[in-house]
């Protein structure tokens, strides 16, 4: 088990990992491939202190190297589940699960528009992880909304364990049902099913973490990066404007310091 899992490999997440290591905490950063981020595509950054005119890829490379030298592990993958058990947080990404004493959310700005019915039926037929929940639908009909390059592989996995799979490659989706999923409407056509796997590149924080307090699409935190859920902290653009790299790195450091304090109190109770 790690002391800290950081979700997000941008400036906030990498800064948090650096500080975690310097405080003697084991940390792992889980994030999508950084080459798809807006920062990576920036040819020139003019306002990051001490690094005038550095490019986005260069800055990410320096931050990543610093995090690794501080002892952090970096894992590439799409986080699909966050499972708190009271004593730990279990994070599912790809086919893997990692556990930690606390969690730092540094996911960046969530620009995800949910499908009608998605939030209401989450956990009642709607899932974001085929490897996590696939066996619950063995022998049943499922729809896979393919919004990532590897969605086809997850659809194949579901078929291999006995699910009847319909792949959907459209943005006009409605998930139907009251107490549980009964069908999906795609481009005006209704398809009966027992489950829907929505496979998109990133999942909004409040959909990952049940009960997370949000404010106008951003994670609500106190000045120390603490959310309303004990053991979960947040930093960077996911907490609100201004969307600036220097702010994100500072918040990452603050969140890691708060997480370190949380871990010390946790360990003292053992």
Overall number of structural domains: 2
CATH H-level superfamily of the largest domain? FAD/NAD(P)-binding domain
Strand count, sense and barrel status of the largest sheet are: 7 strands, mixed
Q: How confident is the prediction overall: mean pLDDT?
A: 93
Number of strands: 16
Describe this entry's structure for a reader.
Strand 1 (2-7), helix 1 and strand 2 form a beta-alpha-beta unit. The chain folds into 2 domains: 2-111 and 203-268, FAD/NAD(P)-binding domain (3-Layer(bba) Sandwich), CATH 3.50.50; 126-199, FAD/NAD(P)-binding domain. Helix 1 (11-22) packs parallel to helix 2 (56-69) and helix 1 (11-22) runs parallel beside helix 6. It contains 6 helices and 16 strands. The longest helix is centred in the C-terminal third of the chain and has 24 residues, at 245-268. The mean pLDDT is 93. The strands form 4 sheets. Strands 1, 2, 3, 4, 5, 6 and 16 form a 7-stranded mixed beta sheet that branches. It has a 4-stranded parallel beta sheet with strand order 7-13-8-9, covered by helices on one side. The protein is an alpha/beta fold.
Task: Name the descriptors.
seven-stranded mixed β-sheet, FAD/NAD(P)-binding domain, 2 domains, 6 helices, alpha/beta, about 270 residues, globular, four-stranded parallel β-sheet
